[in-house]
């Protein structure tokens, strides 16, 4: 409320002397939605009468006490141009008004990317664009964490004609062009997008009802005393206050013609300097090359293409600076002015600054000097010299860390400033191209995207508005083995959002570039979005999507996949066998699969997986070679036939019981006897480690290596303290928990977490009470101080529990001493009968500990578990704990 008043007050201060004021959007050249009831709105002085006239018709209304007014218009036919005039105490008119279809486009940089950026790829479009009835309104970048704003400070409608088209978003231009060419009605695009921003920035506060953490952040950010201590500057603007670059500080600068190079080394362009002998160097590196040029280039204006450069560059030709770019993403296309290129030797010098990651020249890009149809290749041998080395950056200090509050990445910040002012406008539908900035938390995206859709439909008062988004493109290095991928996870979250009604997804898994997060093929993206619009918004009976996975059935040794959007049939688009299908058994260990199109299905098998359960397709950052299409030429969306998030909603992931194999005290036999057997059966164990253990300290690399196969390293304290008793003569006085303080116990467990993280890189950890003891110092419980550091804790009591009975910080287990295989299998059967969790606790396996189980008995148990993996879920304790957590939190809220 404070902000509404503030805005109203501000408006009053500027325009308040009885003046009608219109929102920025309602300005010359505006496109208004045809064929639907729409609203024209604005401000005036309180209670002022406002008259509007359009097409010879008069409308009138009165501003309310805050000066707000609006006028409803009946559905209008497509057409124009018209003039709308408004009369109160003043008179305002809006010229060149068209009625047509208005689309809101939003997202990150790929939605911003203007035609200017892709002009080399689409020279004809740029030179000959003549679509005065396609109009673009680009929303200026603004953020606000206080609350929704009423209007924009700037912005105007621009037609898609030569010149103005340069600033129009390329995706939205090609989208609009297809619609315009089909229907010949005006198309208005409102483009509200900011590069590098997460989806949370674009959702309104109301849209976060189901997200308590974000709501807390929003409230906190509204407190100015909190938010004012942070910078609002993008983290990338890493200002170097003082020039220390030797290339600029000497008597002759390194780009000058008179400079005599000394101590330069060879370098091959393209490529990153970390790959050419400059280890981990952040700083300034200079590159130079002398070259002879053909006579035709002498003296003329030429184009210099330097591909892409990470991060910033300045380019000099014969001592003249011809351009610079300050960040890595734009293509380097410089103009060498007339008169600079000379006969004989020419000198090109490039100064490159890089502050993090690999620096240098991006491969597979264009490096050439060209004019009049003649081209000189600039790839190949250059020389380099280091000008400056940046000291390692000390993060988290005031004044320059990366974790700072950056307003535009805060929840609601962009919604408030860049979407809220638009919501009175009636739109035909919405386009969304975003997700790159959410790949760090890809699963959460499956909650955020539906939340955004619901939110915007409500705010724009169009509950069923067509909503179309672009799935993330293929990007980054190609994996030639099945692999996990956050990009694939995010694409799957986008895929799952198709369950929201009246939505469509443009799949572009074939339009990306491995080395460019901003792929150039924007025409393909726009066209595929337009197909979705034709179907959802214009009711055309067309195939608008590639194959979308619908369901799967397991038939013996194969999995049969069914699809929607098959169109006129499934094909391999390159005529090769289907690629990029993966298959796995219950263990979700994926291998490449053989996949064949059979009618409208795909059948997937592998000799390595006789009893398959899971399939996934195109599951990688860059699944090059994914070739399942429909005959309409549209690619299948990447998918998997399961969803671990959903599986975790079911008790024991949908199986009858869960079994956890835990092994305590870090013994040699665990590495030598247990892990090889587990690996041969593809089962995973949990190893409770006290880091003081000799077998642990002596064989760190072996313990590290077992985590690569999915085994869990878990926390059993550093020193294995226990409460000293007569029956435990081996408890050393120094490590008698009866003498510990809570703080000491908590600290030693936390330190052990840190040690284990150093081995396996994991931040989530489970714990096992040493000797099953819960207390220190007589009777003080210590686990409460650890609940932020641990996911679960295992005790030692011989009990089984159903999933709703499990106490995560007091999980029971059966300590096994000399049990036979049959006895242990009977316990598993009992767990299956009672739908319970059974935790085995082993120490010695084939020796090395007084609490021992024989190798044959242990093997018999594991083989039984493997054979019964369709009804028994055998998993590490941490995975089971997550299942329990998800299941219990869901049943509690319901
Ligand atoms: Zn122990």
UniProtKB/TrEMBL annotation:
Keyword Hydrolase on entry: yes
Cross-referenced SUPFAM superfamilies: Galactose-binding domain-like, Glycoside hydrolase/deacetylase, SGNH hydrolase
Keywords: Hydrolase
Keyword Hydrolase: yes
InterPro entries the UniProt entry points to: Galactose-bd-like_sf, Glyco_hydro/deAcase_b/a-brl, Ig-like_fold, NODB_dom, SASA, SGNH_hydro_sf, SIAE
Region described as Disordered: 222-243
PANTHER family xrefs: SIALATE O-ACETYLESTERASE
Name of the protein: Sialate O-acetylesterase
Organism classification: Bacteria, Pseudomonadati, Bacteroidota, Flavobacteriia, Flavobacteriales
